[in-house]
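Worked example 2:
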Amino acid sequence: MAPTDPVRLRGPVLVRREKNTERSTTDQRLLDANQDTDWLHTDPWRVLRIQSEFVNGFGALAELPEAVSVFGSARTRPGDPAYEQAVELGRALSEAGYAVVTGGGPGQMEAANKGAWEAGGQSVGLGIELPMEQGLNRWVDLGLHFRYFFIRKTMFVKYTQAFVCTPGGFGTLDEFFEAITLVQTDKITRFPIVLLGVDFWTPLVDWIRGTLVENGMISASDTDLFLVTDSVTETVEYIRDAHHRAAQSAEQREDLYGVEHRGVER
């Protein structure tokens, strides 16, 4: 037999076998001036905030030219070798025709944005809401501020074509390992990843090769997914060469598809 229980609709949701305790309508609660604000912190409302952050990010970055993400510590200051190298990196990337995208904060993020700005390139900062508010550094031309880390990460991956990790802490390590995981698992098209700073990164790379590879946790070939270097020039050349090879491969695939397609038509 078909259910005979009363049916209620909560917007698009059908509810059966649940006692109706509501004494007002959604419209009435919306227009009521004397309401509490607990609803601001419920999951359905968070979904709308998440949606709005994606929309704002996609809208702001959709027409961004080829871009490179630069990650690094927020704690360095002008005069620190890592800071000055990040300035040089931002300048070199801009001169090579890339927009420079950072987390928008101080330290090496600021340095890379500064180098891009001084070179006349596009300097982008994607900030994040933190307990210790940082704000966007003054060298950012185009800036967005996010509530949610995972949305910000999506923007880095979607709108940049290479990652460069300068010396940094947990945040930099997070970006490096997430990027290399996405590439390794073919979740994104392979793109160049660079660890800039041999002395800083070598202990980590030795652990990857000496522990992860030797214990069979990753393949030996996975260590070819990134470059370790001290050279800004080599970094830019590595990125440009990778993009050139990718463009050639895309053209070859298009040519092959065209031949196959014409063959089908005949």
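The helical segments are 26-31, 43-61, 81-95, 108-118, 149-159, 170-184, 198-213, 232-265. The beta strands are 7-10, 13-16, 67-71, 99-102, 123-128, 142-146, 163-165, 193-196, 227-229.
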